[in-house]
Structures are given as structure tokens and as C-alpha cells.
């Protein structure tokens, strides 16, 4: 299926690895030119080169922390006018409710709520002028079903979800659609880090921690960045124009509900 976005330009944040990279790869496979970002330049440059070689699109790598004003300015400057924005950043650390200080909340809000909002505020005016735009925010399944140890994530991402719920309806008349993708457990460095934490806390090896988590997922496995990227590319496609302000859960059935 041709998604009808060949020649479009996209920013994909936090994209040297994991889910962000999955989104970048899937957009590149559709002929979308990219600006990709991550803090570590070495892995980012290697990803940019791999995507260019595989898909023949233009890929500009901008190293920097997307949760900072300077990081965002560098990405936006390199990108110019864009048709597609995929927001993403690393997730906050686990803990319990009594651990977190005001500074911890501010850091989480900066990375996982205020950064995607600032990026949307920067690119939406151009999309509205050109009467076409797609925004996909990578949030978390925790928005629908809280993960108690990830209280900072639950908090920040729910705030972002509220912003998107209203804003997506304000920009839809101008051909701009904003949606959120909610990952459940996917096989990335983030999942390995969380499994490592469980293995230490419970005194079991990491394979046992992983098997334990897989057993809680009806699909009995973790999702892949490729599957996640394909869903992202569809939400960025010509066919997604009537999908407005939705929260699409990709979790192998882990969240148990009828609707
Ligand atoms: P990952 O495999 O650890 O990859 C994170 C990517 O983001 C890397 O390219 C990393 O590169 C970049 N990054 C992190 N912080 C950044 C920042 N401040 N500025 C720019 N780039 C940054 O993580 P992932 O599993 O793909 O997760 C992506 C997002 O989805 C996270 O917010 C995570 O919490 C959320 N999520 C993931 C899962 C899952 O199962 N994987 C489930 C629910 C939610 P550098 O380190 O070099 O910057």
C-alpha cells in the first residue's frame, strides 16, 4: 500500500534507537525525507547513514537534547517547513510516589509533556498555512492503564494527552491531524532497562524477568519497533486525515477492556 507521502518532510525526535528509529525507518520506506534527533551523535549518525543507504531519502541528523530549548531550536532550524512531526524522548525513571521531588516532576514534564507541546506550537502554524500536516506523539500505554512504578511518566503523558485532545480538534479544520501512539511493552533498550530493574529487585535473572512480563501479554511477546513504525507511518499517511485526536494502544492485548 502506497501511503501517499513520498517527498514529504518529517522531524522524528529521539530516533537513533528503539521506537523513534522504528518510526523514522517506516517513514523513510515511504519516501519521506527526515530530520532525526538524539543526544548521542555517534549512534544518531550511524542510524542516519543506515536509513539513507536503505531507502535513498535525505536524512539530516541533529544531535542534542530535545528536552532543552537549544536542542529543539537546532532541530527546528535544520528542518525548516515540515509536513510531519513525530515527538518522542526518553522516559522518566521508575520509583514510588514518595520518591519524587518538584525537580523530578519538572524534568519529566519538560521531556514528556512540555517538549512535544513546544514542538507542536512551532510546526502547527506552517502546517495550517499549507493545509496539510500530521503529528504523532509517542506516549505510553500508561495513559490508559497506569504503571504504578512510572508515576512521573503517568503524570506527564496524561497532561500531554489532554493538550492533544483539545488541540487536535482546533487544527483539524485546516487539514492537520494529531494523534498519539501508546506503546505497551516493546523490545527496545528501554524494555531491557526496566527488565533489569525487575531482575535486581526480585533476585531473578533477566530472562526470567522477561518471561514473566511476556506472560502478562495476550500476544505472549514484546512488540517490535518495526510494527510500531508501521502504525506511525499509517497515522502520517494520506489515509489518516479522518483520524483525529485518537490514542492508539499497541500492547498485544495487555490492557483488558472491551472498548
Ligand atoms: P529507547 O530504546 O531507550 O530509545 C530512546 C531513544 O531516544 C534513543 O535514540 C535515545 O538516544 C533518544 N533519546 C532519549 N532521550 C532523549 C532526549 N532527551 N533528547 C533526544 N533524544 C533522546 O526507548 P524506547 O523504548 O524507544 O522508548 C521511546 C519512548 O516510548 C520513551 O519515552 C519510553 O518511555 C516510551 N515507552 C516505551 C515502551 C517500551 O516498551 N519500549 C513502553 C511504553 C512507553 P540518546 O540516548 O542518544 O539521546
UniProtKB/TrEMBL annotation:
Highest taxon, organism lineage: Bacteria
Enzyme Commission numbers on file: 1.1.1.100
Keyword terms: Oxidoreductase
Pfam family, one: adh_short_C2
Any GO molecular function: 3-oxoacyl-[acyl-carrier-protein] reductase (NADPH) activity
EC primary class: oxidoreductase
Keyword Oxidoreductase attached: yes
Family according to the record: Belongs to the short-chain dehydrogenases/reductases (SDR) family.
Official protein name in the record: 3-oxoacyl-[acyl-carrier protein] reductase
Amino acid at each position: 500500500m502506497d501511503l501517499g507521502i513520498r517527498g514529504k518532510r518529517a522531524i522524528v525526535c529521539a530516533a537513533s534507537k528503539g521506537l523513534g528509529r522504528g518510526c523514522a525507518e517506516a517513514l523513510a520506506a515511504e519516501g519521506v525525507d527526515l530530520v532525526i534527533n538524539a543526544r548521542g551523535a555517534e549512534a544518531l549518525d550511524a542510524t542516519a547513514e543506515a536509513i539513507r543507504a536503505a531507502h535513498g531519502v535525505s536524512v539530516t541528523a541533529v544531535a542534542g537534547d530535545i528536552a532543552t530549548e537549544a536542542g529543539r531550536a537546532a532541530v527546528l532550524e535544520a528542518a525548516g517547513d515540515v509536513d510531519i512531526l513525530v515527538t518522542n524522548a526518553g522516559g522518566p525513571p521508575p520509583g514510588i510516589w514518595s520518591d519524587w521531588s518538584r525537580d523530578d516532576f519538572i524534568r519529566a514534564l519538560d521531556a514528556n509533556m512540555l517538549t512535544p507541546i513546544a514542538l507542536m506550537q512551532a510546526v502547527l502554524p506552517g502546517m495550517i498555512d499549507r493545509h496539510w500536516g500530521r503529528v504523532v506523539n509517542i506516549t505510553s500505554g500508561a495513559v490508559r492503564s497506569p504503571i504504578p512504578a512510572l508515576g512521573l511518566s503517568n503524570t506527564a503523558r496524561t497532561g500531554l494527552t489532554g493538550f492533544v485532545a483539545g488541540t487536535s480538534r482546533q487544527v483539524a479544520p485546516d487539514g492537520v491531524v494529531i494523534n498519539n501512539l501508546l506503546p505497551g511493552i516493546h523490545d527496545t533498550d528501554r524494555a531491557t532497562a526496566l527488565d533489569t530493574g525487575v531482575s535486581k529487585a526480585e533476585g531473578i535473572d533477566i530472562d526470567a524477568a522477561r518471561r514473566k512480563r511476556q506472560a502478562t501479554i495476550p500476544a505472549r511477546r514484546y512488540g517490535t519497533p518495526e510494527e510500531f513504525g508501521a502504525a506511525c507511518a499509517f497515522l502520517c499517511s494520506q489515509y489518516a486525515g479522518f483520524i483525529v485526536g485518537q490514542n492508539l494502544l499497541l500492547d498485544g492485548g495487555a490492557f483488558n477492556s472491551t472498548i
